[in-house]
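Sample 1 of the test manifest.
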Amino acid sequence: MRYLPKSDSERREMLEACGVTSPEELFSHLPEAVRLKRPLELAPGISEYEIVQYFRDRAAENANGYACFLGAGVYNHYRPVLVDTVVSRGEFLTSYTPYQAEIAQGTLTTIFEFQTMICQLTGMDVANASMYDGSTAVPEAAMMAGRATGRSRMLIARSVHPEYREVLHTYARHQGMPVEEFGYLADAGTIDLEDLDRKMDDLTAAVIVQSPNFFGIVDQVKAAAEIAHRRGALLVVLFTEAVSLGILEPPADADIVAGELQSFAISPSYGGPYAGIIATKEKLMRQMPGRLVGQTVDSRGNRAFCLTLSTREQHIRREKATSNICTNQALIALMATVFMTVYGKQGLRELAAQNLAKAHYLAGKLAPRFSGPFFNEFVVRLKGSPPDEVNKSLLKKKIIGGLPLARFYPELADCMLLCATEMSKRAEMDVVAQTLAATASGRVPAQEVTQ
Amino acid sequence: MYPENFRYTKEHEWVNVEGDTGTVGITDHAQHELGDIVYVDLPKVGAHVEQGKSIGSVESVKAVSDVYSPVSGEVTAINLALADTPEALNSDPHGAAWLIKVRLSAAAEVQSLMNAAEYEAYIGAEK
Amino acid sequence: MIRKVTPHLSQNEVLLFERSSPGKKAYQLPDLDVPAVDPADVLGAASVRTEIPGFPEVSEVEAIRHFTRLSTWNYAIDYGMYPLGSCTMKYNPRINELVARTEGLAWAHPYQPEPLAQGCMEVMARLEAALIEITGMDAVTLQPAAGAHGELTGILLIRAFLQKRGNPRKKILIPDSAHGTNPATAAIAGYTVENIPSSATGGLDLAALEKLVDRDVAALMVTNPNTLGVFEDNIMQAAEILHNKGAMLYMDGANMNALVGIARPGDFGVDVMHLNLHKTFSTPHGGGGPGAGPVAVKKALEPFLPVPRLKRAGKRWAYDYKRKNSIGRVKAFYGNFGVLVRALAYILAHGGPGLRNATVDAVLNAVYIRKHLEPYYELPYSQPNMHEVVFSDHRQTQAGIHTGDIAKRLIDYGFHPYTVSFPLIVHGALMIEPTETEGKRELDQFIDAMISIAKEVETDPQLVKTAPHGTRTSRVDEVTAARKPILRWKPA
């Protein structure tokens, strides 16, 4: 087998050196009862070509050549060529966690740059070397707020990504961490500040909001901060669309910012792997979960980087650790770092501006359900045909429409969440607009719409 | 090496009682085991501490050790200098690098602790 | 005599921010085909940022040189062996990278309609089936993003099962030889941790277990083979003790590389376990992640698995969200799909017989190393080892040299260090796992290096104590990094 670099003669030499005559003897110490006495029922190994073919066949069973107007936490952005060039280098791809700083300065330096750029983007003082993804960053941020305040209750907005909220519930259930949700305004789509205020108390560790929120709307971060801080709670601000930070003012009032970097050249890849981040103010630094890279010097006085503040982590603190997390998404974070480098200060803004233009062009032809300001996603209410039906007609034109919201928000069952990015073409958006308009007017049944 | 007038715990803390105040620290043995100390986590002034219960921790790069109070009472002072120079714990653990001062609530507790000779014997026997 | 490496020139490189200069760009966006909008108009002026302060501006050439130069400062599997214990640093097959980038898979949106995601669902179903066969368990979830995440999922599953039965119980038993994620996980799942001391031979102490297992114990978390690389011979008896008291057996699958095709956890009493796809199944570490930590369970725990589950709907795959006993989601969407593709490609490449052969070679390599290093390094436990072996630095400490120093000197010989000071039950541990993808030549060079260092400890201990000497960066000051953390670049 091509991955096993031993010739038969070498294997024999080694077996002899080990004092055995056959490989089976290496396992003779195992109790009889535990041994598997038959071969694994898996097909024999196949060639490279056959492997490529297998996955090509699977890919062919997916959507191919469709324009996609889905957002909802995962975004279609162009991936600069340099990203894969860099991450495909064996020194990045096949290296280990940089515990041995002397031979991992490549990884450590890029993570330090990553941490810096995340701080610059989010307006926070310190950022970690990434969490698994945006959804798991939420309970981590909540636990952090719990440690920092000594309180346990969490208030989270319903306009936070529904699956992110689900993940928080899974974690919170077993930590004596009560989680309550507060609503959004039916007209603006922003958080219901009165509802938040009513539900707020002195036992609350954190108020958790997302901006732009799940509906794509830029939310009332400042007002939420006031309500939270007045009662001694922290404000956690989430984001799922990192490109929005190219143009939106970062949440300076947040105590913790957590979010998802998938937009930064990370393939949608059917849900993962992605990279989440947690960034915070200096005073909460030691409460952060996950790996941190710090600057130092080597014994010759040269600048160098190393993992630091490790005593927060599981391998030292064990059951008292700030988290159980071991992995950081280093390679994924590197993709984001290269993306941020390629676009840079001007490019990220220009990219965000293009997203804004595309989405507002499309929205201009439809009627957004909410009046609040939005970035590159918005909700439309469909009169005449249910969202699933509208999507069926769009599929016939090789367009994947927006996300029908019934599964997450029963009160918005007649709505869908549409996203347009710099990759959305005007012609495609025109078809979407026409199709939606036609079904809305009720003049043309959805099934008969042609182009 | 180990001041005669201090009392010592099995977890390698010391307390120096003067009147109704006890000054608390970690022993030379403790700092030696930890290596270069990088961070100290202390309770707040006004906090109530109990003999044998954790009051914070001392960290080196690769290890963290809980600090258990040798006495019960109210914290009246903490050594703020350690925030900037935690390394003082390595050089002067019995003097300048004291951790907290406690107004004792149960002075008799100190009798249950080891004296200098007993402590030296204890650490001699440990390894 | 150092044969594997020689020093050579490497390029210096500053940070991106130090290369940056206003107006330089590495991108070009196409012209807008729709009218531009004024951000202040649509978002409100207060919401629009003026700029991203300090964000770099470099050209494409500078960008590629920056990252390329940095990359040359890293060691990697592509350069040579990583003998890291319990990390299973095996070759990362390049075919995996290619297939993960297949367009229809890489660009699949997790919310695209199920009929248009059948390919992705088939990949996941196929992987689930393969992992079931390999582990001997009954059902698998692919949702957890990493090993520790899988551990948490597993413990939450145990909790849910016990809760349904009437009492979630309070404690998890964890051996003192366990990896730190185990107790950290137990704490997050709302359990207290009780340490179970290892036996005199470094393994599970049945007598101690018998005494500790009561109606408050939810589970025992074991790694098998354990962190000494030794198979827990009494695992089936341990399972019985636990099951008799209504408790469960969780297995940390980090060391599966010793078992694939040889023994199956489902056959020796394990109720729930996680796998590390970035260890046993060759997905790349990438400098620290991503990974994936699927969890495999026995039938009784299947109803509690995270939602959604894959199910057959006629000729197609569909998602089942109606699972009232599920513990919920542990992550958005379905799992680290891109990592799952790589793991499946690895399994397809090896096939059943191939996977077993890989295990055999993994064990052969570790035993070979043990035989050759035994005369020079103390072996604290004499049981037969499997895919890894643990020595202690006891002999070398006589000269004032510790495992950490030996590890640093190993770098001068062209290798990445082994795992230092773990497991904690061995004082001054040297934990070595070669994996099956090392050939005789690399192993011999490793052995020669370790023997040479053992001799240096006697003849020239200072050389070892101040290593590494041949690297671009010499020993870094971790103490100052922790005392005065600088976690980001700031302009002067």
